[in-house]
Fold this protein.
Amino acid sequence: MENKVIAIAYEDVTDENGEFPLLKPQSIIAGKGGFIAALNFMQRIHGGKGILLSRVDGVRTPEITIIGAGNSGTAAAELAAAFGNKVTILDISSEQFGKARKVLPANVELLYSNRANIEMCLKRTDVLINCILWPKWRKDHLITREMLKLMKEGALIVDVACDEAGAIETTKATSHDDPVYIVDGITHYCVDNIPSAFSQTATTTLCNATLPYLLEIANKGVKRALIENKYLRRGLTTYEGKLTLEETGLKQNRPYISPEEALGM
Amino acid sequence: MENKVIAIAYEDVTDENGEFPLLKPQSIIAGKGGFIAALNFMQRIHGGKGILLSRVDGVRTPEITIIGAGNSGTAAAELAAAFGNKVTILDISSEQFGKARKVLPANVELLYSNRANIEMCLKRTDVLINCILWPKWRKDHLITREMLKLMKEGALIVDVACDEAGAIETTKATSHDDPVYIVDGITHYCVDNIPSAFSQTATTTLCNATLPYLLEIANKGVKRALIENKYLRRGLTTYEGKLTLEETGLKQNRPYISPEEALGM
Amino acid sequence: MENKVIAIAYEDVTDENGEFPLLKPQSIIAGKGGFIAALNFMQRIHGGKGILLSRVDGVRTPEITIIGAGNSGTAAAELAAAFGNKVTILDISSEQFGKARKVLPANVELLYSNRANIEMCLKRTDVLINCILWPKWRKDHLITREMLKLMKEGALIVDVACDEAGAIETTKATSHDDPVYIVDGITHYCVDNIPSAFSQTATTTLCNATLPYLLEIANKGVKRALIENKYLRRGLTTYEGKLTLEETGLKQNRPYISPEEALGM
Amino acid sequence: MENKVIAIAYEDVTDENGEFPLLKPQSIIAGKGGFIAALNFMQRIHGGKGILLSRVDGVRTPEITIIGAGNSGTAAAELAAAFGNKVTILDISSEQFGKARKVLPANVELLYSNRANIEMCLKRTDVLINCILWPKWRKDHLITREMLKLMKEGALIVDVACDEAGAIETTKATSHDDPVYIVDGITHYCVDNIPSAFSQTATTTLCNATLPYLLEIANKGVKRALIENKYLRRGLTTYEGKLTLEETGLKQNRPYISPEEALGM
Amino acid sequence: MENKVIAIAYEDVTDENGEFPLLKPQSIIAGKGGFIAALNFMQRIHGGKGILLSRVDGVRTPEITIIGAGNSGTAAAELAAAFGNKVTILDISSEQFGKARKVLPANVELLYSNRANIEMCLKRTDVLINCILWPKWRKDHLITREMLKLMKEGALIVDVACDEAGAIETTKATSHDDPVYIVDGITHYCVDNIPSAFSQTATTTLCNATLPYLLEIANKGVKRALIENKYLRRGLTTYEGKLTLEETGLKQNRPYISPEEALGM
Amino acid sequence: MENKVIAIAYEDVTDENGEFPLLKPQSIIAGKGGFIAALNFMQRIHGGKGILLSRVDGVRTPEITIIGAGNSGTAAAELAAAFGNKVTILDISSEQFGKARKVLPANVELLYSNRANIEMCLKRTDVLINCILWPKWRKDHLITREMLKLMKEGALIVDVACDEAGAIETTKATSHDDPVYIVDGITHYCVDNIPSAFSQTATTTLCNATLPYLLEIANKGVKRALIENKYLRRGLTTYEGKLTLEETGLKQNRPYISPEEALGM
């Protein structure tokens, strides 16, 4: 603020559909990385049950349950299904089901997320991958510690969303150096920066997404770009020493002004 | 025998791989018809639980277990999977798995048939389709009446093979007029001539398979055809008033002679 | 009205795309059920020609014509194609073709619906499945009784939309108890409540679609829910003793008021 | 013969399944080239009807009939189906159907070849591709000149097998310089060396197939290679001034000896 | 203008998504035709290298690079991939990638278009198909003459967009009569009216797209149709002797008035 | 030998096609495990380049080269292709290509293995997976240390076959504890017992394959089983204190007798 940096937050830039084009690439890589982590931590050499998460004729096909049909969940499901596992995605939105269906193979089950269905899945699943962010204000959990008892011994939870005490009560963030811990016989993988393992791929896809904004800023100057492009402007966080926030109406008594005010629009 | 009819049995003619080219078309139609019967008798209007045997996003995907990875079982699995159900085929032959895999979609599970796997399937399945013939001399059963208790209430058994007291202990043959009965809460469909429902298709495909033999008989005369074509000869049952049987060596003390003897070869 | 019931009609609630989220699940089940009915009534044991509606190598592949590329038509096509039939969907909307193409396999033909194409299809088809609602004010028909003469003897019409004297001139609604009748050699299946055969599946999917609205009503109270959610409000039919109707401007001189007026907005 | 050349004919070398490994690559390229020729000669600029042989939503999908489910026919069908056409292969062998099915997509129709089915196809088809060799001794034809009248005006016949007065009565061999002619309104493409258009691809694949035999000859010397490898020996045509022919027993009174005799085995 | 013709330009009518429904069918046919041209001009008999643009096991799979992921590029990629080639589409829009992904098979590579990626593709590719229109005001090129040196000898450029001195510096429009020329060892195919080769298909699909507008004009009269349908109105070019142009605000000092003014709205 | 153990070697039991039914399951798991190892060791956190081995739109698709189209190679290719990578299998056998083609998706390239093709692949590939056993008597290598210079910096070699100084000159066997080492900038993963990571899956599939032989031995007694089943007998290694070996004719002067002799047949 002192140096009057103009800061634009990646996570607040939207597109015309209200989606987050600068977050989507990382969500996809995180979801894919989540399944790849499961491939590893089910191996005997990494402390798992020694199950190959891939259809092998004659052997019971592994079952994978994914919570959330958004970008991460769909990406995790895509890889899990590609290896021939039985995959179920739980969600509560018919609209998300419709979007996911268009990019997933026919054999991914999209199932309404309610208590009965969650419990049925917990009993069967070899791996549970959580891909929904949990609202910070919620005190309850989707999967409580109690519910871990329903799971098979040696089952694995991969928490891609990785909210501590969020959707999964027993989640605590871990790092690539020490990625897993066990609670009540269930292994938890809760690395909170999965994409860093795939640094080159993540950087390239993030640059692809960022470049159009950079070009607009380079061509027009930052001020005009912010004025003319309302989606970019949504990401504005500091401008000439002022904190800015979209929707300031909802957050009065805070030291924010709207991006439009800051830009003198 | 009095009229000296020359009889060749469809079910005994083999090809060079030891398969039965004149039975295969009916086996395929029987297997497909078995799944179509399941589609019907799971409907509420036909006394079933009102389950549509097809993936519907948001709803639990129905599960279908098929016993036997031969022609019938593979054909039933092909249709059941095409409708988006979760399909498991149980068999004990890796070789059959290999053949079935080439024509089935990736999401059909091929599972080794042992007690643990059968019981796991019985607990989950909405429909069980039996496609293996049971040796006449066996007194035991693959699915005993006791094991029906493992199944969900309202589950359906379709016995395509339809051996009374065979693989399924509780099977009794029924007809298209009165096709189902209930034992211990499990509906049984045991029509022993499924292909007759698809008479036109069955006739055409059977004629396609039979025609090469007819042409050979028409061109050469029946005696020369039988002498020159050992696969056709295997089907010879009566010839000029004599009963004939391949492998008479195993069945001494019976009034059979070998086809070769009958033909004076 | 006397009891001041607050009634919200399923068939009038829309989503932000102008589609009907509470009707869509039933349309899908009706379309799928329509093809399953065709599977049955082409069987010899149910009075049909004995044709198995599934590709059998060596035998002519059955042809299925579907009128309308909406939810029902697409669902019927999905199953008919999954069984390996040759499927043609007739429609007049390029936009519908675009939507249908994304969920259908490549071998479903999407064909512009005009007289020449309809007649070509009638001559070839084994089964005609009608999935378009016919405007009540239209006196003409898409398929007249005269045009039935173009069809093969023993062909089957399944009228999923089931408007009497609608798109199909010869349609009269039937019930699951007595589902078919014959006109000029063509079998007609016109059950007007196909989803009831699949009661469990239909109930589950309908509940999935309804639940978000119920939760909103439960959380906010019905009045605030109706005021804040304009899509729900479109379904309002009676409110505190008053008949309401969206678009009252078009229907003056009737005893309706708009939902907004009724709610005092 | 004078120079005592040792000649081994490509077209007579078999493998252990009785197939011709040195002919197969050319057959595949000829079949693919046959469909590519059809793509061209249906274009308006090359005198055709101006039909794009590829599914275009809204437009009638083109129909392609292929005679023969061997290597050429299957290859032609693979490409024709890949472009989204409706493809029917006619053959009389269930065994060929089984082989073709494993490599073709589900929407290729495999149909028993009899008069009724051929006529049905001739009436509908936009392109007929012939891929069966016709026995030299047969005087009849599969498609007579009379039968061309059944075809649509402007339809195209591509004769990949290209036997003059063979399966197609009206076939006369043409060259790449002047590839088509018209008989009774039907365009005929009968280039008898299709693979030469794809010289680089054809050469590479032929070398791949030939190399193992060359290596064996180089390593062992030609005589020992011929003695030890009975499949190679079947191709022996001249050896040290003698004409050789397998199965000389059937062709007595000719100046041939068997390869084994020639080699002094 | 003298005759007061009412002219509506196909290329200016939009739909509600800002796309051009009357151009799209031709773009698709042009893209498909572009790949079909490549199939031809890689043949030895047409002066090419004799490469069959289709996967042949054992032979290097041909590589096809397509510039632009719009309607033409996607259609070209669809066919090129269907024949089993390795296909890369270059584009700079993540949104276009998302749309293209839904209709393309998984093995088409969608690659961000930058100098490094273009050069990598030029070195590898057998065929380059350009499907992007180049802004008339740009003086630079995407592929300069200098860059042709990166390509393999005998490679082929198909310029579907066919802007002279546009995206491809060396493009000059050609005709179906004399379609190709060579620059620096690289064959160029730059026919500027590819769809005319497929006249029947193109006409049908164009009529399908046009018919709804014709019906609206026929039912309402042209003036009312233009007033009520703003998408149709965007195409208005002359009306009662006046030149009209949408967005006249940007083009002052020209003899245009807006369509709305012309219609007296 | 002292204890007169009857030993039957898994790796010598064949089936009627000359394949090794008791080795095949491990080969498949080794091949799949090889690709999973590549997934890991390309990650930045495990010392790799940070490349996600999965298609991500906008990013260059990773390239995987697999040597050998047998059971291991095909299994590795199946998973690598399922994740959307560009996969090339090098082999010299058209017959292996034919078998592999039936189980692999269309976008796996099967390429004849010669020096030119190997070098082209080495230059491009991100990962090289070796799946061919190298004859013990060969002193040369398929990939010499010199050839590593052709590869990209940071590329990865996974040697599933893991013959020291075999197909890959620079291979030295490693263990799961310390799996990788670097030679000339190329990472090598040469764990010689990959399936042990997937112990549960490997055990189950191995038991499935073994069970029929165990049952035969249990039912008949070991001597009769060995006498009646020539495939099992091929695996006999010691019998009543004698070393046995099939094909003793080729290995004279050794203390072996044939299994048949040992059994007194």
